[in-house]
Specification:
Layout (H helix, E strand, L loop, with lengths): L5 H4 L5 H9 L3 H22 L3 H18 L10 H23 L17 H17 L4 H12 L4 H8 L3 H20 L2
Helix pairs in contact: 2-3, 3-4, 3-5, 3-7, 4-5, 5-8, 6-9, 7-8, 7-9, 8-9
């Protein structure tokens, strides 16, 4: 899914027509936007936040912001998705800042025992994801954002560049540097 565009993901989805209809109050169009963007926004948020509950809450906040500000959106040469992911990025940053202010005690983690037989692969995968997530948190902010959008949300280089207001080459360089740093960090853990 690396370099896919919105048109390749949903060839029948006429983004501009759907956005224009949603701005006029068409609930079906608004629902279509939600259905189209929710999975990608949720993946982006869940990559940036460690708690599933927080990811769900923040994703809900993102879509509330989108609905609240939809009428003010205007086409300025960028796809609607870039606007959506800029809102998503801002909400994640705000959430993280609020958590840092509130969090003064150790966080509790919830564990659910798996009643099924041994799932070594699942555990290894979960451990690997947690290791990579922890390492990614130590990356510089710009690299972290590129990794989250590219691999968490599945955006293309072009979509990531538009969402972050950077050039495609800048995104490629940030991604390359981030992956190289992650490889070194993960090897040492």
């Amino acid at each position: 899914m690396g370099n896919t565009t919105v048109g390749e993901l949903a060839p029948d989805f006429d983004e501009q027509a759907v956005v224009d209809a949603a701005q006029q109050g068409d609930h079906t169009a608004l629902s279509a936007l939600y259905d189209h963007y929710f999975p990608r926004v949720y993946r982006y948020v869940s990559v940036r936040l460690s708690s599933t509950e927080d990811a769900e809450d923040v994703t809900t906040e993102i879509f509330l912001r989108i609905i609240e500000n939809l009428r003010s959106f205007s086409w300025r040469g960028l796809p609607f998705g870039a606007w959506v992911f800029r809102i998503a990025r801002n909400e994640v940053v705000s959430h993280v800042r609020r958590q840092k202010v509130r969090t003064t005690t150790a966080q509790l983690t919830e564990s659910i025992q798996d009643p099924t037989p041994d799932h070594v692969d699942t555990i290894v995968t979960a451990f690997t994801v947690a290791t990579v997530r922890e390492a990614a948190e130590r990356l510089p902010e710009a690299q972290r954002q590129v990794i989250a959008l590219r691999f968490g949300a599945g955006l293309s280089v072009a979509e990531t560049a538009k969402a972050l207001g950077k050039t495609e080459n800048n995104v490629k360089v940030l991604q390359h540097k981030a992956i190289a740093k992650l490889q070194v960090m993960v090897r040492h853990e």
